[in-house]
Write a structure and sequence with these properties.
Elements: E1 8-13, H1 17-22, E2 30-34, H2 44-58, E3 64-68, H3 76-83, E4 90-93, H4 99-115, E5 124-129, H5 132-136, H6 138-144, E6 148-153, H7 155-162, H8 174-187, E7 190-192, H9 204-217, E8 222-224, H10 230-236, H11 241-259, E9 265-267, E10 270-272, H12 274-304
Parallel strand pairs: 1-2, 1-8, 2-3, 3-4, 4-5, 5-6, 6-7
Antiparallel strand pairs: 9-10
Helix pairs in contact: 2-3, 3-4, 4-6, 6-8, 11-12
């Protein structure tokens, strides 16, 4: 099973037409249409009426399109009914705290898939953890879901419940992000997020540092709230040209060694053995998958007769 490439998830309110109309031009790997925090309670009913068309429009650039629902009993069924249609990639589920949260939503989605002629299991889940209770249950959450594709940490809400403010270097996030990365990798789920708050969209350097910190934990992408943050995420979570070139040299040297009966060789005064070789192979596989995704996005925009606007 290969992980889906979602380096950048751009979250935007579904009830702001000018954001939705330009979403497919932003270069994000995924667009998350928000029905939750960005939409006041008084406007949620009207916002649901906008979702189906917004999904179609946001997907014109080749990005995956998800809808962030309200994970509350009084809203969840109506939100899913508005969101689950052909063309939707997944549901972004906030405030997940238990395995029951996942199974109940998966059952609701399955009924809607059956009702609307969508292949069973087609709609994926992106699970958002926002509390210490949810964090302590992520092993069970990851294990119970059959649709979970990615998992992320809601930094500001998590820090609120922890009783701390997000720091510049994200020290308070070391434990939850390390825990999440390890559990996600064991469950073959993409860990998504940055080691810091996404709120500071006027500080691109700080956002990039936070993204690089999360990449060092094993995170494969991040979510953001402003188009200017998209190219940062796409760059940080892509192997650099220098890394790709080195990976190719590692593969060549190791495979040449195998042909000569050796499973350990020297390259640039460093040992290359099987784990290093496998790392290089993964690097090339990710680079190729990213190239294929970028081609898909580019071709989608060409069909529209437009280029990306970032």
């Amino acid at each position: 099973m290969k992980h889906r490439i979602q380096r950048s998830m751009l979250i935007l309110p579904v009830n702001v037409p000018r954001f939705v109309q330009k979403a497919h031009l932003r270069g994000a790997d995924a667009i998350v249409l928000d029905l939750e925090d960005a939409v006041p309670h008084s406007e949620k009913e009207d916002a649901r009426k906008l979702v189906k068309h917004a999904v179609e429009l946001s997907g014109l650039g080749g990005a995956d399109v998800l809808v962030r629902v309200n994970n509350e009993p009084q809203f969840i069924e109506a939100d899913l009914d508005a969101a689950v249609h052909k063309g939707l990639h997944g549901i972004f589920v906030p405030k997940v705290e238990s395995p029951t949260d996942v199974t109940s939503i998966e059952n609701l989605i399955a009924r809607l898939e059956n009702k609307r002629g969508i292949d069973l299991g087609r709609i994926k889940l992106s699970v958002h953890i926002e509390s210490p209770r949810g964090l302590l249950n992520i092993r069970e959450i990851a294990a119970v879901g059959t649709r979970i594709e990615s998992m992320s940490l809601g930094v500001d809400d998590y820090c609120l419940e922890l009783g701390v403010e997000p720091s510049e270097d994200g020290t308070e996030l070391f434990f939850p992000m390390s825990m999440m990365a390890n559990i996600c990798k064991a469950a073959r789920i993409n860990p998504i997020g940055i080691q810091g708050s996404v709120a500071g969209f006027r500080d691109p350097a700080g956002f990039e540092r936070a993204s690089e910190r999360s990449r060092s934990f094993g995170f494969t992408g991040g979510y953001c709230i402003h188009p200017d943050q998209v190219p940062i995420l796409n760059r940080v979570f892509s192997p650099s040209p220098a890394k790709i070139d080195h990976a190719r040299r590692v593969i060549f040297a190791f495979e040449e060694g195998l042909r000569n009966g050796r499973a350990s060789v020297s390259l640039d005064n460093r040992m290359v053995d099987t784990p290093i070789y496998k790392q290089a192979k993964l690097c090339i596989e990710r680079a190729e998958a990213i190239a294929a995704l970028e081609l898909r996005k580019s071709e989608s925009l060409k069909k529209l007769g437009v280029g990306s606007q970032r």
